[in-house]
């Protein structure tokens, strides 16, 4: 296929790529160096080694070396928790030698300590490695300064790079918290440049979790576009169980901007952001990558108005030839397309277009478009907004759970009504993006060529966007927290909104993800704390049914299994709760793991009892969660390896990450998907107040617990 060159691409300064190259890139991800380059590498690393050794010997171990990072003047500077004594000065390969550019070039041969961005077809990343064995590659990488655990599990991801030096950065404050990472602002000592350090931690050096991270790195290295976050390099330590990914620093994320009450985007500004976002998505898709977690908080914006798509932790390579099923447990719930909610295991880039549609609407509305609290509710909201698909769709659908989710009544789309304030061309584009049928969503390229971008008011130039005060999702959260701590406000707010529930979830969870939220609340502070599988609050009943969830990332599934165990111990009666196939939606319960089919109880009554049980169990889990949650997280904070597990080793296509769906996965319902006539809203409200009550009580219990005395030695 020819080169994609258009005014649009030029306008966005997007490089010109061949589609065929992108797709061909899917499979071959490795590099074949010539034997001479191999020799060069060997001698380079030997040189690098001796250099490191002599440096570590000559450099006396000082106190400040006890932290991997240079000490910041700021008192708030977080210390590296994973530091072990001797990390820096005793272990020569703890941090690789990142000398001045010139000497580095001389000494390292073909290694790069930062992103070389040779982007496009010629990427070093996209050839085959010629090492005689994995162990020789490992030896090579270890001598270049990489820890062996990383090289063993993710050699390809770090191929031809050397680690960056930790003490080349001064770590400043924490700026973001993700599911499995913390993000810090930091200063590059030599240049004063501000960067973002994403700390990714692994428990017990599990190869699967390392390979998940490796996939993110490999994908980031494959991408090279002004609207996609650039990975500058990796800081690692031989002994620590974490690494830092170094990114350029971005002042804002869209979640924070949208949440700010002072910011209301104009049409031109929205168009400017959307053009940049579509350009980023187009680049990913042309390079054979689907992001699978597009949401406002993963879209970063700097003070120059440049938007960059970040967080490729769930991204995957598109492999149209592969018959391997994909996991449907991707994309944050509010941005998750209907086919994934219905369990699709074969899907493509159109999942991203749905998410982009949700972000698009959010920019206009100033709040999240579809805020389901459970997968079922999310799908219900989608059908109510976008219309339920025609009969033909259900007849021909191969989606695993399609028959279960088919609504009894057809819904007409209410999108026009809900978005009546939008410009016509924007609404047309939104209708395409939010098509329940994926093929109707078009492509990022077609969106960029749509009438929306061709009509006035045109997109403004990024440099004309206003300079915003700090508005990260985390800033918004902090603002909310400090507001809440102010006396007077606290009492009022706690009676108005069940925040305590979410806080409890947050705390018991151990990671900053929660929660169902109520209309009118700040969406994005919620999204950072959304419900996830690690939350003991989630009522997942063994053997089948209910769960109040879930925009979890797949890596946390195992955590919820642990919680499921806790729950089932004390609340086993709930496992017999049945759902109904009778009204509202055609329910069926999938066989449990041992293959038994559940009986289907009758009538709408059981629908409600399922929902009641769900919420009742939530309260149980909430209490239980305080006790078990943290241990559960600690023990089982591991990745859902379903996409990694099938092969273990990379296959020829390099697409080993992309595979097996959770077999035997119990279908998790949060209650039946009811039509509005069934009064689900009132029911949810009732349950909500029940949760509120329990959370208040449990908080009260916690508060009256005696606090341990502080002992000063
Ligand atoms: N380069 C950056 N510059 C500034 N802030 C950043 C940068 N990268 C990430 N952040 C902040 O950190 C937050 C979390 O980062 P990121 O999404 O990459 O982590 P994650 O663990 O994958 O998160 P999640 O689970 O929410 O997807 C972002 O929402 C953003 O606010």
From TrEMBL:
Q: Please, which domain of life does this record's source organism belong to?
A: Eukaryota
Sorted alphabetically, which PROSITE patterns does this protein's record hold?
A: PROTEIN_KINASE_ATP, PROTEIN_KINASE_DOM, PROTEIN_KINASE_ST
- Region: Disordered, residue numbers: 30-122, 463-542
What is a biological process (GO) this protein takes part in? positive regulation of transcription elongation by RNA polymerase II
Where in this chain does the record put each Protein kinase domain?
169-453
Cellular-component GO terms for this entry: cyclin-dependent protein kinase holoenzyme complex; nucleus
Q: Name one GO molecular function term.
A: ATP binding
**Which InterPro entries does the record associate with it?**
CDK, Kinase-like_dom_sf, Prot_kinase_dom, Protein_kinase_ATP_BS, Ser/Thr_kinase_AS
Tell me which SMART domains the record gives.
Answer: S_TKc (SM00220)
Question: One Pfam annotation, family name?
Answer: Pkinase
Keyword terms, alphabetized: ATP-binding, Kinase, Nucleotide-binding, Serine/threonine-protein kinase, Transferase
Task: Output compositional bias ranges, type Low complexity.
Answer: 34-55
So where does ATP get bound? 198
As for family, the record states: Belongs to the protein kinase superfamily. CMGC Ser/Thr protein kinase family. CDC2/CDKX subfamily.
Its protein name is Protein kinase domain-containing protein
Traced from the root, the source organism's taxonomic lineage reads: Eukaryota, Viridiplantae, Streptophyta, Embryophyta, Tracheophyta
């Amino acid at each position: 296929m020819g080169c994609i060159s258009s005014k649009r691409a030029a306008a966005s300064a997007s490089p010109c790529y061949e589609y065929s190259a992108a797709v061909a890139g899917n499979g071959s991800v490795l590099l074949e160096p010539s034997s001479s380059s191999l020799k060069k590498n060997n001698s380079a690393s030997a040189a690098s080694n001796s250099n490191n050794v002599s440096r570590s010997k000559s450099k006396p171990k000082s106190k400040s070396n006890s932290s991997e990072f240079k000490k910041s003047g700021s008192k708030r500077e977080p210390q590296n928790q994973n530091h072990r004594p001797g990390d820096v000065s005793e272990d020569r390969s703890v941090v690789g030698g990142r000398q001045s550019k010139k000497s580095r070039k001389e000494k390292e041969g073909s290694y790069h300590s930062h992103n070389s961005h040779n982007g496009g077809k010629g990427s070093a990343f996209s050839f085959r490695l010629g090492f005689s064995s994995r162990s020789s590659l490992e030896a090579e990488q270890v001598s270049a300064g990489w820890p062996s655990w990383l090289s063993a599990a993710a050699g390809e991801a770090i191929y031809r790079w050397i680690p960056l030096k930790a003490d080349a950065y001064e770590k400043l404050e924490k700026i973001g918290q993700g599911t499995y990472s913390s993000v810090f602002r930091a200063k590059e000592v030599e240049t004063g440049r501000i960067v973002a350090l994403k700390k990714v931690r692994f428990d017990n050096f599990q190869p699967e979790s390392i390979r998940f991270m490796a996939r993110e790195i490999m994908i980031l290295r494959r991408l090279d576009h002004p609207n996609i976050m650039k990975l500058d390099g990796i800081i690692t330590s031989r002994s620590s169980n974490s690494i830092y990914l170094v990114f350029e620093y971005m002042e804002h994320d869209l979640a924070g901007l949208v949440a700010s009450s002072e910011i209301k985007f104009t049409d031109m500004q929205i168009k400017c952001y959307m053009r940049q976002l579509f350009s980023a998505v187009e680049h990913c898709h042309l390079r054979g990558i689907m992001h699978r977690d597009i949401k406002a908080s993963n879209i970063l914006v700097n003070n120059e108005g440049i938007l960059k798509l970040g967080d490729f932790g769930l991204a995957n390579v598109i492999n149209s030839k592969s018959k391997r099923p994909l996991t449907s447990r991707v994309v944050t719930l509010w941005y998750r397309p209907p086919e994934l909610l219905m369990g699709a295991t074969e899907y493509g880039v159109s999942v991203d277009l749905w998410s982009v549609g949700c972000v698009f609407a959010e920019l206009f509305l100033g709040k999240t478009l579809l805020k389901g609290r459970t997968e079922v509710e999310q799908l219900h909201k989608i059908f109510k907004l976008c219309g339920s698909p025609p009969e033909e769709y259900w007849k021909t659908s191969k989606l695993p759970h399609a028959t279960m989710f088919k609504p009894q009544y057809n819904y007409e789309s209410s999108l026009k009504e809900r978005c009546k304030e939008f410009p016509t061309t924007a609404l047309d584009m939104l209708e395409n993006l939010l098509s329940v049928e994926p093929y109707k969503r078009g492509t990022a390229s077609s969106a960029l060529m749509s009438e929306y971008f061709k009509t006035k008011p045109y997109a403004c130039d990024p440099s004309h966007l206003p300079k915003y005060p700090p508005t990260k999702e985390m800033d918004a959260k902090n603002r909310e927290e400090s507001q809440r701590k102010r006396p007077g406000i606290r009492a009022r707010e706690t009676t108005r909104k069940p925040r305590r529930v979410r806080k409890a979830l947050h705390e018991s969870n151990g990671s900053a993800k929660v929660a169902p939220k109520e209309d009118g609340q700040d969406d994005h502070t919620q999204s950072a704390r959304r419900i996830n599988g690690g939350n003991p609050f989630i009522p997942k009943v063994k053997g089948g049914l209910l769960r109040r969830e879930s925009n979890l990332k797949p890596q946390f599934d195992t955590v919820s299994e642990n919680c499921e165990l806790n729950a089932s111990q004390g609340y086993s009666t709930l496992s017999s709760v049945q759902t109904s196939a009778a009204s509202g939606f055609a329910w069926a319960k999938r066989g449990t793991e041992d293959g038994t089919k559940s009986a289907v109880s009758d009538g709408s009554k059981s629908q409600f009892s399922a929902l009641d049980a769900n919420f009742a169990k939530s309260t149980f889990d909430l209490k239980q969660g305080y006790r078990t949650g943290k241990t559960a997280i600690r023990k089982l904070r591991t990745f859902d390896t379903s996409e990694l597990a099938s092969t273990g080793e990379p296959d020829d296509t390099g697409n080993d990450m992309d595979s097996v769906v959770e077999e035997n996965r119990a279908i998790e319902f949060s209650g039946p998907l009811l039509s509005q006539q069934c009064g689900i809203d009132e029911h949810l409200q009732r349950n909500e107040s029940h949760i509120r009550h329990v959370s208040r009580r449990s908080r009260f219990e916690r508060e009256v617990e005696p606090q341990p005395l502080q002992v000063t030695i």
